[in-house]
Design brief:
This protein has 153 residues and is of the alpha+beta class. It has 3 domains: 41 residues, no CATH class; 41 residues; 33 residues, no CATH class. It contains 2 helices and 8 strands. It has a 3-stranded antiparallel β-sheet, with no helix packed on it. The chain starts with a helix and ends in a 13-residue tail after the last strand. GO terms for molecular function: enzyme activator activity.
Length: 153
C-alpha cells in the first residue's frame, strides 16, 4: 500500500499546476549570506566584519545600506574604511590606522615631537620647523613669544 500511496502522490504533483511562488519568499532574510542587494528582502547585501563574506543587513533609518566599518585601532588605507572616517599615521611608521576625530571633528595625523628633524612646519606637532644655525639641520621647535609664533629663540 505504501508504494501505491507514493505513486498517487507523484501523479498528483505532476497533474496539479504549480502556483507561482511570491518573490518575497525567494529573498533572503537579515543575517543570511548573499552576493547582491537584490537577493535580500531589505535590498541590502553588505559585509558585517573584516571577513569578505557578505550578509543581508537592515537599512538605516534614512534607508541607506551601510557596510561594516573598522573601529579605532584597525589598520586602514582610506578614510572610508573607518567608522570615524579618519585613517592616518599614528607614529613614525608609514602604516595608517583608524583614529578618532578631535572634539572639533578634525582628522589629525601624527606629527613629530620637538627636537625631531624636519623639513617643513606641517611635519611638527608644534607646527614650527626651524634651524637655529644656518649649517644645522632643521628641527621641530616649540612656539615662542606672547603670540606663540614660530620664531627662533
Amino acid at each position: 500500500m505504501a508504494p501505491a500511496g507514493r505513486l498517487l502522490l507523484l501523479l498528483l504533483l505532476l497533474l496539479v499546476p504549480m502556483r507561482a511562488v511570491p518573490s518575497a519568499v525567494l529573498h533572503k532574510g537579515i543575517g543570511e549570506p548573499c552576493e547582491e542587494h537584490k537577493q535580500c528582502q531589505s535590498n541590502c547585501c553588505t559585509t558585517s566584519t573584516l571577513s569578505p563574506q557578505k550578509y543581508c543587513a537592515s537599512l538605516t533609518v534614512f534607508r541607506k545600506c551601510l557596510s561594516w566599518q573598522k573601529p579605532t585601532g584597525y589598520q586602514c588605507s582610506d578614510h572610508k574604511e573607518c567608522r570615524s572616517s579618519c585613517c592616518v599615521t599614528n607614529s613614525r611608521s608609514p602604516l595608517r590606522f583608524c583614529t578618532p576625530r578631535t572634539i572639533f571633528f578634525q582628522c589629525l595625523s601624527w606629527r613629530k615631537p620637538n627636537q625631531d628633524y624636519c623639513s617643513e612646519h606641517s611635519e611638527c606637532h608644534s607646527q614650527c620647523c626651524l634651524s637655529l644655525i644656518e649649517t644645522a639641520p632643521a628641527r621641530c621647535r616649540p612656539r615662542t613669544g606672547f603670540l606663540a609664533q614660530c620664531l627662533p629663540l
